[in-house]
Specification:
Layout lengths: L5 E5 L3 H13 L2 E5 L11 E4 L2 E4 L5 E2 L3 H9 L6 E6 L1 E5 L2 E4 L3 H6 L5 H16 L3 H5 L3 H26 L9 H13 L7 E6 L2 H15 L3 E3 L4 E6 L5 E5 L5 E3 L1 E4 L3 H6 L6 H8 L3 E11 L8 E4 L8 E4 L13 E4 L2 E3 L10 H15 L8 E14 L5 H4 L10 E3 L12 H17 L2
Parallel strand pairs: 1-2, 1-14, 2-10, 7-16, 14-21
Antiparallel strand pairs: 3-4, 5-9, 6-9, 7-8, 11-12, 12-13, 15-18, 15-19, 15-20, 16-17, 17-18
Helix pairs in contact: 1-8, 1-13, 2-13, 4-6, 4-7
The structure holds flavin-adenine dinucleotide (FAD).
Flavin-adenine dinucleotide binds next to helix 1, strand 15, strand 20 and helix 13.
Length: 438
């Protein structure tokens, strides 16, 4: 059992819920302070014309053992569905299937030698173990070394620009390493079939079961409570002020909020700490989700190498999820990753509709506005930290100069893409670090 210390967890996303679960299982007293009316954060749901599903697309991989462990612990493992999915590529105005080695060999935009180099690059990235070395090499340099200039310009550069904009210039090869490692683990072997999973009912079901589990372990969950300040009082407690009238006192507080807010709410932190957190560069996302009267393709993911579509890729959820879960309509996400200050965040819904749907109908001329039965836009200004050169060496520590105040957020993922599995892993490993040092 634990020391029965009291813990305040700021933020009730996957990170906050995982921290709360592990602490409560030790027998400690835990309170989760969440500004939204529901737990879940980025995995939260939106209601779309009677259909409740994730506001941002989510998929679970067979290799996501941490995520699957949580799903088992909260008692909904039997709701997990596994499906074989396909991947598409939109290149030179045409759509290609890219779901196995034969389709890859037939892929016309590049010649056979270039295909060999592209395939080799993917294989090399999948077998490299030393992620630390990848962190010190610019992504452009590494990809050009293995794929050659032609393949870099034709395939990699558009994909990098679609996901990272011009920030790809400051990104390390770790970005491509983590992406390929995750993609590879989705497939049974090599460029063979990919199996993806989801929980029936989406992440809304996971978040609801997670909340019930936490409450059953005695965790106090305070929703609609926006944390505004964290200080330390003379009695050695950490004091948390929110928008609600009462202040809260804890032995320890962990903020799971992104770097900028985590330091802003703790005014006593040193300039050095604040600068270290401020140096973390985030990318955000503007992500329309639309319901269509019929499927747009058979691909879960369609990657895009043409520069004109304004979205990073197309995610067709109903190529994975049983359409019956979604009112027998097709759910499509059109994510666009952008910098936190991008003008796209300021556009109103009608402007975004025109901006995203016009190019979609250009890509799929059989579709028009009348096929769109519902339109929604979800956005978040800070989603994932850009893996800049030697990122892990520049990261601030999780302990701060405000005794008892810790910052554990997804920026602490140093050798993985942003996903729930990595988030759970960071929560568990960083919590062990705190407990070992107390
Ligand atoms: C477009 C997109 C696609 C994704 N696809 C996948 C996928 O396919 N598979 C996968 O595994 N993962 C995916 N992810 C990643 C996954 O959603 C994240 O890894 C995970 O949700 C991060 O959880 P978190 O708790 O770190 O952050 P968050 O979810 O951001 O949680 C932070 C919480 O803090 C709350 N908060 C903010 N300010 C305050 C305050 N002042 N006081 C109190 N509370 C506050 C917020 O409301 C939020 O609930 C995707 C993410 C996005 C955006």
């Amino acid at each position: 059992m634990g020391s029965e210390k009291s813990w305040g967890i700021i933020g009730g996303g996957i990170m906050g819920m995982t921290l709360a679960l592990r602490l409560a299982q030790r027998g400690d007293r835990v309170t989760v302070l969440e500004s939204a009316p529901k737990l879940g954060g980025l995995t939260g749901a939106v209601e779309m014309d009677g259909v409740v599903w994730d506001r941002f697309y989510h998929v679970i991989l067979m290799s996501d053992l941490n995520t699957r462990n949580i799903i088992r612990e909260i008692g909904i493992e039997n709701e997990l569905q596994w499906v074989e999915t396909k991947t598409g590529f939109f290149s030179g105005g045409k759509l290609y299937s890219m779901s196995n080695i034969f389709e890859f060999l037939k892929f016309p935009p590049i010649n056979l030698i270039d295909k060999f180099r592209l395939g080799l690059t993917i294989i090399v990235a999948s077998i490299i173990k030393d992620w630390k070395r990848m962190e010190g090499i610019p992504v452009e340099k590494w990809l050009t070394r293995w794929s050659g200039k032609r393949v870099f310009e034709k395939i990699w550069l558009p994909l990098l620009k679609a996901k990272l904009g011009n920030q790809y210039k400051d990104t390390s090869a770790l970005f491509i390493w983590t992406t390929i490692q995750r993609m590879y683990s989705a497939r049974k072997s090599g460029l063979k079939k990919e199996m993806f999973g989801y929980v029936s009912g989406g992440y809304d079901k996971i978040n609801t079961a997670f909340e019930q589990k936490l409450r059953s372990l005695g965790v106090t969950i305070i929703l609609n409570s926006q944390v505004q300040q964290v200080t330390r009082d003379p009695n050695n407690k950490v004091i948390v002020q929110t928008n609600l009238p009462d202040d809260y006192q804890f032995d320890n507080v962990i903020s799971t909020l992104h770097a900028d807010i985590s330091v802003k709410i703790a005014p006593s932190l040193t300039k050095e700490e604040i600068d270290k957190h401020a140096a973390i560069r985030y990318l955000g996302v503007v992500c329309p989700s639309i319901l269509l009267s019929r499927p747009i393709s058979k691909y879960y993911v369609t990657n895009i190498t043409d520069s004109w579509p304004p979205f990073t890729g197309i995610i067709e959820m109903t190529a994975l999820v049983d359409p019956a879960e979604l009112g027998n309509r097709s759910l499509v996400y059109l994510p666009k990753y952008v910098e936190p200050g991008d003008d796209l965040f300021l556009k109103i819904s009608d402007e975004l509709r025109e901006y995203f749907l016009k190019p979609l109908f250009k890509m799929y001329p059989d579709f028009s506005d009348k096929d769109v039965t519902f339109w929604n836009v979800s956005s978040a200004r800070r989603v994932f930290a850009l893996p800049t050169l030697n990122y892990s060496e520049k990261l601030p520590s999780i302990a701060t100069s405000l005794e008892g105040y810790y910052i554990i957020n997804s920026a602490q993922i140093i050798n993985g893409t942003l996903n729930v599995n990595e988030t759970v892993q960071v929560a568990e490993s960083k919590l062990m670090e705190i407990l070992d040092n107390q």
